[in-house]
Amino acid sequence: MTTKFRRIGVLTSGGDSPGMNATIRAVTRAALENGVEVMGIYEGYKGLMEGNMKLFSERDVSNILNHGGTILYSARSPEFKTEEGMARAVAVCEKNQIDGIVAIGGDGTFRGATDLTLRGIPCIGLPGTIDNDITATDYSIGYDTAMNTVIEMVDRLRDTCESHARCDVVEVMGRNAGYIALNTGVAVGASIIVVDEIAFDEDAAIERVIEAKNNGKRNFIVIVAEGCEGFAEPFAKRFEQKTGIETKFARLAHVVRGGSPTLRDRVLAAQMGKEAVDLLLDGKSNLVVCIHEDKICSMDIGYALILDRMYKGKLKDGDLDAFSSEQAAEMREFCRVKAEQFRDLYNTAYLISK
After folding, report:
1. DSSP for 264-326?
2. Cβ atoms of residues 113 and 103 within 8 Å
3. pLDDT digits 0-9 by tens, 71-88
4. Could you tell me which CATH class the domain 7-142+261-314 is placed in?
5. What pLDDT, in 10s, does the model give residues 163-174?
6. Using CA atoms, how far apart are residues 241 and 44, in angstroms rounded to an integer?
7. What is the mean pLDDT of residues 185-214?
8. What are the pLDDT digits (tens) for 43-57?
9. What contacts 298, CB < 8 A, 6 or more positions away?
10. Does the domain made of 144-258+340-351 have the CATH classification 3.40.50.460?
11. Nearest C-alpha neighbor of 311 from the set 186, 199, 177
12. Segments making up each domain of the chain, as ranges
């Protein structure tokens, strides 16, 4: 390992997620074990520009891995996206002898990390978001906890649905991605799952529910991804009209972001936090740490961001110009496999939904 790193910073940015504190702990302790000081930066890139930070000891990160949210807080910062904001952030790093940064968050966080890397501050990104909408990684920190929270809430709703022969239409978080909705829908035995990624045949779904009702089924759960904006609540009313089943609507909203992280998120935080420190100390930067096929790996942030746009159908003219034809083909295959896995699980959910 190189010895040039005297001090690194760690920050959380974007939406909070369970497991961020466990990640902060892992980064801090891995760095300290390697003789590198750690500066905890409060309120993300905003705090970095303002110099809102504290030198961390091992004790500063004690008893936090079981807590949700982030002890470093988070804040949006339009100014950071400007040249003036970037210059302020770099100046603060230089003043405080911060040789590199571990940035925990989503795609916006990673773009900021790239901007800092280009200006001489090496950065490593860690995926911290409940939405699991970072294409490069199979799991993001907080995703497993969020799904378990949804399961717990919906299981309770099902109890009262069974008692009263009702349906609950439940909208779950996930931003524009349907991962939470799809996986929790399977896990709670939802009769219907609605996600933005796959066309929804409402009439066919209603027919299956009516058939199940006629066969004696009393409780029904419908899981809707929040990416299907404006769909869930009106659908609850249509569902009741078409099926004759009393139907309630529940929006779980930000409760899904809170709570103590699960075992999986705590372990993932430990693995990714250590890997981020190792990468920095090995002289590497502008990488995002991922887990793919149960293996911790890393990917260039620029590559990961374009891969993300490709998967979400948001590629712009010129986005692929910096990549070889082989890399572009590799991206397309990666996206094809990921989309196929999503659709296969959706088909499985439909098959066993009655």
Report:
1. HHHHHHHHHHHHHHHHHHTT--SEEEEEETTEEEEEEHHHHHHHHHHHTT---TTTTTTS-HH
2. yes
3. 999 988 889 999 999 999
4. alpha beta
5. 999 999 999 999
6. 47
7. 97
8. 999 999 999 999 999
9. 124, 275, 279, 284, 287, 288, 289, 290
10. yes
11. 177
12. 7-142+261-314, 144-258+340-351
Of 131, 144, 196, 265, the active-site residue reads 131
Query: Measuring CA to CA, how many Å separate 89 from each of 97, 120, 121, 190?
Result: 12, 11, 10, 47
- Which value, in Å, is the radius of gyration of the alpha carbons in the chain? 22
- Which whole-number Å values give the CA distances from 322 to 221, 302, 306, in the listed order? 46, 10, 10
Residue 312 token pair: 């979400």
Question: Which among 56, 15, 58 is positioned nearest to 39, based on CA atoms?
Answer: 56
- Our answer to whether residue 131 is catalytic in this structure is yes
- Confirm whether 7-142+261-314 and 144-258+340-351 share one CATH topology: yes
Residue listed under structure tokens 């299907």: 228
C-alpha to C-alpha distance for 19 and 21, rounded to whole angstroms: 5
Amino acid at 247: T
